[in-house]
Amino acid sequence: MNIDHIFIFTDDNGKVANELVEFGLTEGSSRIHKGQGTTNRKFYFDNFYFEILWVHNSIELRSKQTKPTGLWRRSEYKTNGYSPFGLCMVNIDETKHIFNNAFKYQPDYFPKDHVIDIIKNEHQPDLPWTFRLPFKDQNRNIDEPKSHKNGISVLTKVSFEYKKISDNNFIRDFGVDSNIEFIQTSRNWLNLTFDNNKQRKRKDFNSLFLTIYY
Questions:
Q1: What is the pTM of this model?
Q2: How far apart, in Å, are the Cα atoms of 122 and each of 24, 69, 118, 132, 182?
Q3: Is 132 in a helix, a strand, or coil?
Q4: How confident is the model at residue 193, as a pLDDT?
């Protein structure tokens, strides 16, 4: 499992994250992405985290620096059919091939020459906006809370549902990872399985297009 984190765009200033707290997840830190126009609420686990993301400054999001990333299109998922999901892979040699033709993005909130590699998936936007950070380290979050009331601990499988038939290399690049899959269905949806579903439970979050199995 080489996922650093996943984001889900929302349009209610992050209030929907309260549903995750009520579900029994412990909320971690949050941050404003300086110059990018987005902010978040985050939930951390033993091997990854996910963030609820929303726009707090549309001018920054559509600036000369940020607009080419296509991130603003993801924020308008309710009207344009784009996937609201972002998939961040760990920066390791095993995932390097995915980003051979990546778009390079230098955000204000990272030091100079620390760029984010982005696969925008513009030709099939119901696939996730996929990227990797410049840091070769997955242990940056040791001080974040990872104990949750519902007993969830380790992410063991991720499934992205998408609508269109894919005929590009993106999905084939993930074929060797049995823990990350892309399934053609009638919707854009994210399924996260924790701890191999040992409790045999599930929770649907319709407003987040998310199902958690645990």
A1: 0.94
A2: 36, 10, 11, 17, 17
A3: strand
A4: 98
Provide DSSP, 62-128.
Answer: TSTTTGGGTHHHHHTHHHH----EEEEE--SGGGGGGGTTPEEE--TTS-TT-PEEEE--TTSTTS-
Both tokens assigned to 139: 């242990």
CB within 8 Å of 23: residues ≥ 6 apart: 150, 203, 205, 212
Long-range pairs of 32-37 with CB within 8 A, sequence gap ≥ 24: 32/56, 33/107, 33/109, 34/107, 34/108, 34/109, 35/60, 35/63, 35/65, 35/66, 35/107, 35/108, 35/109, 36/60, 36/61, 36/66, 36/71, 36/107, 36/108, 36/109, 37/61, 37/62, 37/63, 37/66
Q: Rounded to 5 degrees, what are φ and ψ at 120? A: -80, -20
Q: d(Cα 30, Cα 160) in Å, to the nearest integer? A: 25
Q: What pLDDT, in 10s, does the model give residues 159-178?
A: 999 998 766 778 888 766 67
Task: Compute the Cα dihedral for 47, 52, 56, 61 and give only its sign.
Answer: positive
* Cα atoms in the Cβ-side hemisphere of radius 13 Å centred on 119: 25
- Count Cβ atoms below 10 Å from residue 199 Cβ, excluding itself: 13
- Tell me the pLDDT tens digit for each residue of 92-150: 988 888 898 999 999 999 999 999 999 999 999 999 999 999 988 666 778 999 999 99
